[in-house]
Structures are given as C-alpha cells and as structure tokens.
Amino acid sequence: MSNILTIKNLYIEAYSEEKWQPIVKDISLTLKKGEVLGLIGESGAGKSTIGLAAMGYTRQGCRLASGSINLDGVELMGASDEDLRLVRGSKIAYVAQSAAASFNPSHRIIKQHVEAPVQHGIMSFSEAQKEAIKLYRRVFLPNPEKIGLRYPHELSGGQLQRAMVAMAMSCEPQIIVFDEPTTALDVTTQIEVLAAVKEITEKMNKAALYITHDLAVVAQVAHRIMVLRNGRLVEEGETRALIRKPKQAYTRELLNVRSLREEKNESEKMDVILTVKNVAATYTGEENVLEDINLTVRKGRTVAVVGESGSGKSTLARVITGLLPATQGSINFLGQDLPLELKHRTKDNLRRLQMIYQMPDTALNPKQTVRRVIGRPLEFYFNMSGKKADDRIRELLSSIELEPDAYINRLTTELSGGEKQRICIARALAARPDLIICDEVTSALDQLVAEGILDLLQDLQNKTDISYLFITHDLATVKAISDKIVIMLEGKIIEQGAKREILTPPHHEYTDKLLSSIPEMDPEWLDNLLDERLDSFI
Amino acid sequence: MKNVICHILKRIGASLATIFVISLIIFIGVELLPGDVADTVLGQSATPETVEAFRKELKLDLPPHIRYVAWLKNFVQGDFGNSLANKRPVAELISWRFSNTLFLAGTTALIAVPLAILLGILAAFYRNTLYDKVISTTTLSFISFPEFFVAYILIALFSVKMELFPSIAMIDPHMGLGRKFYTILLPALTLTCVVTAHMMRQTRAAIINVLASAYIEMAEIKGIRRLRIIIHHAFPNSLSPVINVVAVNLAYLVVGVVIVEVVFVYPGLGQLLVDSVAKRDLPVVQASGLIFSITYIGLNLLADVLSMLSNPKLRQSQF
Q1: Assembly ipTM
Q2: Which of A22, A163, B173, B225 is the most exposed place for a label (fewest CB within 10 A)?
C-alpha cells in the first residue's frame, strides 16, 4: 500500500521573545490508506501543531520552517494559499478538541456540515444534505433527519463532537485529523465519540492522525503510536508492542497507571468534621439541582465526589462554602451548624474552610506576585505582616515544593500551570484550614503534572491531618486519592461508601457504567465494551 | 419565542421608566434656569402688573409639581402647549422641523451605514495591509476635523467651485422627494463623513475580534474562501456590537446635528431648539428635549432587541 501522507524532517517555528524558535523538531511520519496513527504527548509536545501542519496549516505566530509534507502526491510545503485551500476539507479534514467552540453559533449544524462539499464544488446543496443525514446516522446521533436543523447550543457536548466527526467526513476526505476529540468529555460520553471514530476509521476505511494525551484512549483506535515530547519524537511503534514494551523511560512514565492508594481505615472514632444533612439547593427557585444530600468528612481523610458534568457536584461545593445557600437541610462543621449563607458566616468559619479551583489561571490575579497572593490570607486571617509574614510565605512555598527565593517575587503569569495550582494550594494552606474543597483541581493539567499535585496533596495530608473534599469526574484520580467515594447523578447521591466497597462488585448500575467507561490500556477494551453495550447503542 | 417577547416587553417597560425619569430631569432643569420667564418675554414692557398677569396666564403661579403633572399629561395626549414666542401650538412648530431632522438623518443613514459596514468588512479582510491603513487614516481624519470645517470644505468644493449642489439646504413641504434629496445632499455628505469612521472601525474591530474564534479556524481548515469566512462566519457573530454602534450614531444624527443644520440653514429640530433656548420659549425647549430623549432611548431599545434576535442562543433561551 502506498503512503497517502508523508512528512519528512518537519521543523515548525513559533515567534516568541522576538525571534523564531522551533516548536516541532525533525519530525517524520508516514500514513497509509486506512491506517490510524496516534500522536501522544503532554501539552507543548507539538502534537496539535503537527496535526494542523498535515493540512499545511499553522496557527497565528507559527510557520512551517523546513521539511516536506506530501499529501497524496501534493507537496504542501510552500504551496500557494489557494492550492492549500483546495486540499483542506476535501482531501484532509479536521476534528477539533472543543466542538462547542468550533461550530459557528450563528448557523444550524447541517448548514455548516454541507458548507465544505458545496463550496469545494463536490456536491449540490441537497445531495450534501442527504449525505449529512446518512453520516449523522453512522455516528449514532439521535433523530438523524432532524438534528441538523438545530443550532450548536441545542446539542450536548458529546452530540456536538459526533456531529463534528460527521462534518469532517462530509467531503469523503482521505485523512482525518482527530485533535483530542474526547478530552473535554465525560467518560461515558467519550465512549460514544470513540465508537463514532471507530466506525469512520474501520468501517469506512479512512486514514487518521489521532492526537491525545491519553494513552489508554489512543490504544483503542490507533494501529501505531508516536510518543512526542517538546516537539521531538521520543519513540514510535506498533500499538501493542509500544504498550507492552515501551523502550523509553518517558513512555513508561506516561504508561504508569496511577497506583491504587491503600485507603485509610475510617473508624467510627475518628472526628467527623463536616456533616451535610438533607441538603437541597436550587438556582431558579423551582427545580432542585441538589436533593437530599447526606455526607460526612472525617479528620485527615479524603472524600471524593464523583459525577459527570451536570450531576451537581460543583454545586455541592458552592452550597458547602455558602456561595449558593441551601434551601433545606443543615451543614455542620467542626461541631457547630454553619449559617447557610456566606454573609452570615464568621471569619473563623471562612478560614477553616478553603477552596481550590479547577482553573489556576483564572483563580490567580495576573497582576499580583506570589508574595502578595499568599500574603493576603495571612494578613486577612492572622494580621501577619512584614518579616513574620515573609517567613511564613517562605515556609508555605517550601511545603509546596517550590524554592522560596526563586518564586516569591514572581508574577503569577510567570508560572506554569502546575506551579500555579501549587500556589493556589499554598494560598489555601495559608489560612490553616481544617477542610479544603478541591474542585477538579487536576483536570486542567497534564497527566504527569497532575500526578505531582496529587502526591503533594497526599503528603500535606499525612503531615497536617487536613481533610479534603475532592470533586472530580476523573475516576483515575478518585482511585488515586480517596478514602471514601460519593457518586452523584442528576443532583442526588446514588451510592457512597469506603473506596474498596465502591470499587468492588457488585456495583450500583450507574457506578458500573462509570467504572466500565474508564479506558483501559488493553487495545481490545473498546471493542469488547461496544459489543457488550450494543443493545443500548442502537 | 414566548420568552423573547416577555423579555422585550420588560425592556420596553424599562425604557418607559427611563423616559419618565428624563421628563422629570428636563422639567426640573428648565425650572432651575436663572431669571424669570415673564421678565424675559415681556422685556421692556414688563411692569409688575403685566408680569403678574402673564404669570397667571401661563399658570406659572401654580406650584411646580402640579405644573409638571399637567405638562406630562398633555404631552402624552399630544398637546405640547403653545409657544411663548409666537403663541402657535408647539406640536405644529415641532412636527415639521422634526420630520426634516428625521429626513436628513435617514438620508445620511442610508448612505453611511452600508458604506461603513462595507468598509469595515473590507478593512477586516485586508487587515494590516496598505488598504486597511488608508481607510482607517482617511475616516479617522474626517472625524478629527470639526463638522463645520468639513461642511465648509464641501460647500467650497461642490457648490462654489463646481456649482453642483446648493450650499443652502432650505427645503419646504412642497418640494418633490428627488428635489429634496438633491437639496440636502451636502449636509448628508457632511454627516456621513462624521459618522462613518466610528461605525466602520467598530465593524472592523468586532470582526477581527471574532476572527480569533475556534470556529473561524475550523472554517479555514474546511477550505472555505477568506471572503466567505468574513461575511458568512465572522460578520453574523459580530452583529451585536455593530448594531449598537449604528444605533448610537443614528441617535447622534437625530439629536446632535445642530451645527450642520446651522451651517446649511436647514430647518431641523436642533436649530429650533437653539433658537428657543435663546428666546426662553420653554414649552418648545421642554418638548424638543423630551422628543430627543425618546428618540435616543427608542433607538437603543431597538438596537438591544435586534442584537438579541441576531443571536440564535438568546433568541431561544430562557430569561
């Protein structure tokens, strides 16, 4: 079989600090008809850049520096804008990470779908519409005849992502570039999209580049895998061989499934520090988004609240912190009932209950230095200033494993994502809290960085006996960090208990669906699962 | 759709409340004007007796809140009172002037809005090229000159040098429509120069802002032509800021064109207002002020409703 895509010695540069700097270095790859190549690596590895370069496209501020990109006999390097335009969409198509952002909010789904074939002169409008409906059926969209008439905001995230997979197929391209198509989705939704991807690549025999940071996901769809780091190739191999016997240390690190932490026994004698009793809450005043929530957190323990988006887990955090006052029930913290509304809580209430957020970028003031960020709670709660505060800030920085001298005077914008999250942790610790609510604190971070954060939280707990209420949709994180698991669905707790109890069968029906949806490294996993669930799919 | 109507009704209610507050402000403002109306109007013939009689006739001897309620009640019914200067009904004076102002504003809008949006789209399309810079600089220079300067330059050029258009835009009710357009072309052009830059720059900025979105990148990757991307993908999503800036400029065309009206001796409402202030013709001042406010608020309301309808998400969502 001949190669339909050949990239040779590709260098891509980005303009930063007033000069062109290479971000993709000496990458070569080939893709045969019907073959799926996985590109894997952490952020900054250059995998999306390579995916776009396969279409002769670079983002603003980047340029293709040297090398060759040969797509089905056409050299894209140095091709004119018009020649590139003719290739894009028709011969090679792209599925973006965030379908919600990549669909134009002003136009109906099907109108965007047929645009490429009509504009490329491949089909007439009505033909393209008929094809679109066929494709919607193939990617398992509900009500394929009518769904295209909706606007993007009327579809769920998983549906949009499948509609985008269908859209990429609209011109019957040779190659599809999938750029993290499931990263923003819940595990159960991820399955639906992966099934659509498989349908396209296997049954319709399309070649694909599949870009992701999740080895377990790529193992399900790719024939071969390339591991990238900092724009360079780390290693390349056939999927099974690479997973079974990675040659490079970095690949092994990525492969390392988080070890299951032995849960600490939860004896009845342990102090209960937080009791949430019969809590209900609402945003609109009519429908309850939380109902009948009961849970306890003990001293020095971690309770993980798990659920998909919309399950009410973040709302629960807002209710406990008082940002959204509960309409029913009580919240007992350290032996006393907390006022449900934030404004009625005392300074001491506030101090003892801290929170860390999902997006460290938005949780830190970009105009402030690390000293100011951590110093503020010290001043607010303990009236600390000057030398005393400075010493405490340094102590806190050491405890989050950042070198005080190197970081104390930096602006928060001069930190990496992982460092920012560490600063957020230090800010929470500065108040000497008894409980920290962690709302998806690792989901915006790369896998290895996230693991560092989880380790740090664990160490801090071992040292200070602090408790965590850990809100997440990522079951791997739950396995790694929790003592107790609370599973939420549609605003209710459907199951809770000690970690071992929850993770060993028999499960509640929904828990089972959640657990079985976590991709495993086994390349057969998806196929087996889809066979099992066939009934529910059709 | 029901929610949208509900929301629009709410906005109309809020606008009515605003207009009510403004009517109060106008009334109080006029009350606070220094000097006595009777004295000023009567001038030389003001004796204590005549002043007293005049005040009685105008009901100026009644307490302010009663006069305010009476004024507002009459205004709502279309009775704006009588002019102090010539005793004619204010409504009669204003309606002809106001329709002239609307005519000039409308003509200008017909030229300026499409022109500004087209130039804005082109500037966004040819962003950072020579063409973009030329358009930006030219339109910017036009708003940097005072209006009367632009007006006189146009007069010098088109009516003095080339003798194409009249320098005085004196229209009367008996003119045909074509003749009217011809007569007011120069003031309309002057105003076009003044308002185009603002709208064009906003259009350009709004489109360029949208060009950074992921769905624009998606359209590029789908191999769509650049011009189509700008018009079909970017423009519909930048409508909201464009509609707003257009509304503000239309409002300006109605309420802020007094200088141009004076230069071209155009019988518009702005000129009437200025004259009436000089003559202390308070019923006319109050009525004109309120009409201007209603125009301004009405246009902004219209802009809000239109930009809401231009967004499918808002069109269908719950408020």
Answers
A1: 0.76
A2: B173
- Domain residues for B208? 103-277
Which phi and psi angles does A319 have, rounded to 5°? -70, -45
Note whether B225 and A119 are within 8 A (CB).
Answer: yes
Burial readout B60-92 (b: 16 or more C-beta within 10 A, e: otherwise): eeeeeeebbeebeeebeeeebbbbbbeeeebbe
A34-48, A114-128, B47-61, B227-241: least confidently modelled range: B47-61
User: Which residue ranges form the domains of chain A, and what is each CATH number?
Assistant: 3-255 (3.40.50.300), 272-368+408-516 (3.40.50.300)
Q: Which of B207, B215, B226, B229 to mutate to test the interface with A (most CBs of A within 10 A)?
A: B215
**How many distinct structural domains can be found in chain B?**
1
Does B312 sit within 8 Å of A151, measured CB to CB?
Answer: yes
pLDDT number for residue B16: 92
| Close Cβ partners of B87 (under 8 Å, ≥ 6 residues apart) | none
Interface of B with A in 257-296 (CB under 8 A): none
Q: Which tens digits make up the pLDDT trace of B195-233?
A: 998 899 999 999 999 998 899 999 999 999 999 999 999
Average pLDDT of span A128-140 = 92
Q: Does residue A336 surpass a pLDDT of 50?
A: yes
Q: What is the mean pLDDT of chain A?
A: 88
Nearest CA in chain B to A116: B222
Pick B223's closest partner by Cβ from A52, A106, A120. A120
Q: Report yes or no: B280 and B41 within 8 Å, Cβ to Cβ.
A: yes
Closest of A451, A466, A392 to residue A421, by C-alpha: A451
Contact B91, B269 (CB under 8 A): no
Residues of A in contact with B127 (CB under 8 A): none
